[in-house]
Structure formats: C-alpha cells, structure tokens
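User: I'm putting together a teaching handout on how sequence relates to shape, and I'd like one worked example. Could you take 1-acyl-sn-glycerol-3-phosphate acyltransferase from Actinoplanes friuliensis DSM 7358, show the sequence you're using, and then write out its predicted structure as tokens right after it?

Assistant: Happy to. First the sequence, then the structure tokens directly below it.
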Amino acid sequence: MLRALSVLFWTVIVVTCPVFFLGALVVWAVCLPFDRRKVALHLYSSAWAVFYVRLNPLWRLRTSGRELLPWRGAAVLVANHASLIDILVLFDLFRPFKWVSKAEIFRVPVIGWNMRLNGYVPLVRGSGASVRRMLDRCSELLSAGSPVLFFPEGTRTDDGLLKAFKDGAFDLAVRHDVPVFPIAVHGTGRALPKHGLILRDHVDARVEVLPALLPADHADVAALRDAARDRIEAALRARTGP
C-alpha cells in the first residue's frame, strides 16, 4: 500500500511541477520591475511546496513561531536537517528568505530551474571554493536585507541525532550583526529517511521557530553557534523525550 501511494505521490509531483513552474515564470515576469528581492516569487514557491505536503494524506504539518520571523530586514535562519521533505515543510514559514542548498538540487529539471529563478544559493559540499562563493553571495543578500536559511549540520542526519554545526552561518551573523533564528524541525525523518523515497506511515511534522539569538549577547562565533545548536537540541528533546 505504501509503495503504491509513494508511486502515486511522486507521479503527481512530476506531472504538476512543470505547471507550477509556468506560474512561477509569470510571477517572476510580472513582479520583476518592482520586486528585486523576489519576495512574491518566493511566496509563490512556498505555496507550491506546501501544496504537496498538504496533499499527502500521510503527512500532517504544523508551524509555530512564524510571527517571530521578520518580513523585512536581514537575518540568519538555521534549522536541523533529517529528511528531504525538510525543504518542503520549511517553506511553510512563508517568509521571504533565501535558501542555501546543495548544488545537485539546482540541476534537477524544473525544481532546480525555479531555485535559480528565485536566486537561492548553491553549495558544493567539500569544495572550499564553493563555500567561499556561497558565503560571499550570502553576505550580499544580507547586505540587501534578505534573510538566509542554512542547514548548519551540512548534510542530513542518518541516525536521527543532531550533528555538529559548522561556523559559516554564524560567522555571517556576527559580521553583519543580524539575529540568528534557530528552527527545530520535528518528525520529518520518519517521512522520508536519508536513503529512499518510499513513504512511511503517518507523520506528524512540526516546524518550530525559536526566539532569536543576538550576536552581541555572545562572546564569539563559536559561542553563538553552540547556543543555536543547544536551543534546537533542547526543542527536539522536549518534543521526543530523552
């Protein structure tokens, strides 16, 4: 049953993505003269992504703390990463951020085209040159007033445990003196594990935006990084228990 539902779900995505992308092109073209940050296009893309989450009868999604995130002004958003659908559920934030995402996704037909159209930021893992380009681009976005969302673990967890955080997102927050918003993503690892596309049984996914951390309240980049990780880990533990 789950295998058949999985085939149907992914088929719907493949069939409808080109239609949604045509809509994205229209939004981009209409808003181009007055929407340099591509806010309208990102919000359209958010609705596109969340449509698939709401469509799936096995998935339930709730988002809390959305009101903490700014509509305008630079910020760094950091979230834990357990599943491919983290990307889908985080779009339910419906705030105009830019993603940092692995470069392979940008090469996926239609999905990757839309990511480039939105001005999201590619990253080749393990490439120092790509990391530098990514940080430079994120610095430009923050200077222009756009929030940027990172997965500071660098990759999806394969055992459900929160990995160590990398410094990049927090170094940017300190250099630009912008708030860091930790975001705890609950339950997605049970929907789609790191390896495989077969849907699992019912999943209760939750996106929880936590109060901001200010660089001025922390001694250095490492202290800010560890505070963000500790806050996400505490939220995950409160949800699942020890």
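A couple of points you could highlight for students: The first helix runs from residue 2 to 31. The chain has one domain: 2-240.
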